[in-house]
Design brief:
Layout: H1 3-51, E1 60-71, E2 77-89, E3 92-103, E4 111-120, E5 129-143, E6 149-162, E7 167-179, E8 194-206, H2 251-260, E9 272-273, E10 277-278, H3 280-289, H4 299-302, E11 307-309, E12 321-324, E13 333-339, E14 342-347, E15 351-356, H5 363-369, E16 372-377
Antiparallel strand pairs: 1-2, 1-8, 2-3, 3-4, 4-5, 5-6, 6-7, 7-8, 9-10, 11-16, 12-13, 12-16, 13-14, 14-15
Length: about 375
């Protein structure tokens, strides 16, 4: 092999190794840029979603927190943070948080960041008292010492004390880790800080279940306001009326008024409150349980509650549960009878609305009328 061939082979090999090294260095850089862009989009989406008014008047809150980050093997840091929070669906909520972690050591390794968070079971309690919730999030943070960007991953639990007013206080414990290479909390680099974060917080709430201010008074129920036994009714089940709870006072009227008070609320699968909207069985469950009457949560169980009533309009009374089916043997929808041949229900197309059994007003009413299969009476 000649000297020229050896030199050429060595040069080609060196160029190949240099290109490989450049590619290896470029890959993390591209990954970091991609992660930053996706995180920025997530932050914008979270902020816009929280600020959006929304049809369901979802519960919102402004949070302020102060705490300490007990870093393992390094100086501790003090946390200052503020957040906008919104209830999303069922037990889930989300927030957009700004934070500062001020290093207490001689070296200024402070972090300043923004990021979205998810919460579980927060805001479920509508009255004063204590409740437990979970929280997790990720933030993009700028390191003050080296001007590098890092990810801050956190997850933990909190204890919230809700006051009778619109304020609440919280105590949180989270595991917080610093991810300087954007490798993920499961693959931290040597030197990444981690430890327990303990915080105290104060929140101001509005919307949804934070109060009833601004809600129009409930319209009066239609139909009779007294509740005699259904004379002439021909129950299709053998359960005697004496086995059912007896309604005292105007409780059935109040149940109907409660349902009418949420007219116009949007449909939300699994929804049972004005915080999130209602599904068909959630509306009826909400109306009954608001007045201390126990009722199953889902439509198939509500269709077995109380006793069966003849499927005739003249046999119905205020508060009877109407059952509907669009396939044999399965109850797929329920409504609440409000008198004069009308019922209130939560529909996927129109939210909480009133339908008619005797004189259908539109195609929606006719669709439900042809699928009406029965009625149940929970209270006498």
């Amino acid at each position: 092999m000649t000297d020229a061939t050896v030199r050429s082979f060595t040069l080609n090999r060196a160029n190949h190794e240099a290109e490989g090294a450049h590619a290896n260095n470029a890959t993390p850089a591209r990954f970091t840029r991609c992660t930053c862009r996706l995180s920025a989009l997530a932050l914008v989406f979270a902020l816009l979603s929280i600020l959006q008014p929304g049809r369901a008047r979802a519960q919102r809150a402004v949070d302020a927190q102060i705490g300490t980050w007990a870093v393992e093997g390094a100086d501790d840091a003090t946390l200052y943070s503020a957040a906008l929070w919104r209830k999303a669906w069922g037990p889930l909520g989300y927030s957009f948080r700004a934070l500062g972690l001020i290093d207490r050591g001689a070296e200024d390794n402070s972090l300043y960041g923004l990021g979205p968070e998810l919460t579980l079971l927060r805001g479920q309690r509508e009255r004063a008292g204590l409740s437990l919730y979970g929280a997790a999030g990720v933030s993009l943070a700028l390191e003050s010492s080296e001007s590098d960007v890092a990810a801050l991953w956190s997850a933990g639990v909190g204890l919230e004390l809700r006051a009778p007013s619109l304020f609440s206080a919280s105590l949180e414990a989270r595991r917080l880790v610093e991810d300087t290479g954007f490798h993920g909390f499961w693959n931290l680099a040597q030197g990444d800080r981690q430890g327990w974060l303990l915080t105290l917080g104060l929140s101001f709430r509005w919307g949804g279940g934070s109060g009833s201010a601004g809600r129009a008074p409930a319209p009066a129920p239609v139909g009779p306001t007294s509740y005699p036994a259904a004379g002439g009714a021909e129950p299709s089940a053998a359960t005697p009326a004496a086995d059912l709870p007896v309604a005292t006072g105007d409780v059935l009227g109040e149940i109907v008024r409660t349902a009418l008070a949420v007219m116009g609320e949007p449909y939300r699968w699994g929804g049972t409150s004005t915080d999130e909207g209602f599904d068909c069985s959630g509306l009826i469950w909400f109306a009954y349980t608001s007045h201390g009457v126990s009722l199953p949560r889902v439509s198939r169980d509500q269709a077995q509650a109380g006793r069966a009533i003849s499927k005739r309009i003249e046999a119905l009374e205020l508060g009877d549960i109407l059952t509907f089916s669009n396939r044999p043997g399965v109850i797929t929808h329920v409504g609440l009878y409000i008198g004069e041949g009308r019922f209130i229900h939560a529909t996927t197309s129109g939210g909480v609305r009133i339908g008619a059994l005797d004189t259908p007003r539109d195609g929606n009413d006719r669709w439900y009328l042809t699928r009406w299969v029965g009625a149940r009476r929970v209270l006498e």
